[in-house]
Design goal:
The chain is mostly beta strands. The protein has two helices and 17 strands. This is Flagellar motor protein MotB.
Length: 311
């Protein structure tokens, strides 16, 4: 305190100035770290359903819907630990930014010509939640997922025997970014091969998922935590013998092309032909690998409606 011509002037003490300077130095790096630790936006959902479901519910076998046939399906989809940082595969271990996610999906496919099929998928995230990580809040809540549209062309068609088709799907950039349900762009071209017998069929897919690279190493501290382009491989064995029930086994795998870790899933499904136009089904199985977006387990139940019966 100092008096100047009858005016009292207050001056902060050196101790107070020193304390404020120290506080600013402490808060500065923390603020910068928080800015660097913002969660990037990408589509967390790895699984894409096959709207035609002529192979398995997830994997095509090179077949297209007959001309004029329409199939529409509604399904509920649960994922356990779909977003978790880990350096090795530890089933069910640890906590994640997204620990539980429940999604409702509507899919549709239509046979435009005997060799040409169009399709679409519209997901809605009903609920998801998790635990904070290094000060980053989990992306919790509900909202629209990423819609997909697709086109499939049969290259080789036989009543029985080998089947070949080219398929491409593209994401529409209208999903909820805050819920990790949107890529800036995503395209998935693939080749489908299959062999159709009277009582069974086998099939496989090979393709590439193209999307913008997202580096999450600043958040996890591990240089392999990257989301980006992937080689996508899948295979299925499906029963066609039962008049009322149909079992299927599918394997899905993602091999990173821009760094990151691989992930795979083993999924089992049973379909019940309740009516000629109505199928009921359940599907579930574990995830394998240390990819940050591979769930520990997923389960699905749904119903499909079609204008005619194929299998």
């Amino acid at each position: 305190m100092q008096f100047i011509e009858g005016v009292v002037v207050l001056r902060p003490s050196r101790a107070l100035l020193s304390a404020l300077s120290s506080l600013a130095l402490l808060l500065g790096p923390t603020t910068a770290l928080a800015q660097e630790s913002r969660l990037p936006h990408f589509n967390l959902q790895r699984l894409k359903l096959d709207p035609a479901a002529l192979g398995s519910l997830m994997v095509g076998t090179g077949r297209t819907l007959p001309q004029g046939m329409l199939r529409v399906a509604v399904q509920g989809h649960y994922e356990s630990l779909p977003f978790i940082f880990q350096t090795r595969w530890e089933p069910g271990g640890g906590t994640g930014l997204v620990e539980n996610r429940f999604t409702m999906d509507v899919t549709a496919a239509y046979g435009v010509l005997s060799w040409l099929q169009v399709s679409a998928e519209l997901p809605f995230i009903v609920q998801q939640g998790g635990e904070p990580h290094l000060g980053v809040a989990p992306p919790a809540g509900q909202g629209m997922g990423t819609p997909w549209v697709g086109l499939r062309t049969a290259l080789l068609r036989q009543d029985f025997g080998f089947q070949v088709a080219a398929d491409v799907t593209a994401a529409l950039p209208v999903g909820n970014e805050e819920l990790l349900a949107r890529d800036e762009y995503a395209v998935h071209p693939r080749l489908q091969l299959g062999f159709l017998a009277e009582g069974w069929q086998v099939g496989g897919e090979a393709g590439v998922l193209l999307r913008r690279k997202q580096d999450l190493s600043g958040l996890s501290g591990d240089s392999k935590d990257i989301i980006g382009n992937e080689l996508r491989l899948a295979g299925t064995v499906t029963s066609r013998a039962g008049d009322s029930t149909r079992g299927e086994v599918s394997v899905l795998a993602g091999v990173p092309l821009e760094g990151g870790r691989w992930g795979a899933e083993l999924l089992l499904a049973i379909r019940k032909h309740a009516l000629s136009w109505l199928d009921l089904y359940v599907m579930g199985g574990p995830g394998v690998g240390a990819s940050l977006d591979t769930p520990t387990f997923r389960f699905m139940a749904g119903a499909s409606f079609s204008t005619s019966k194929v299998d």
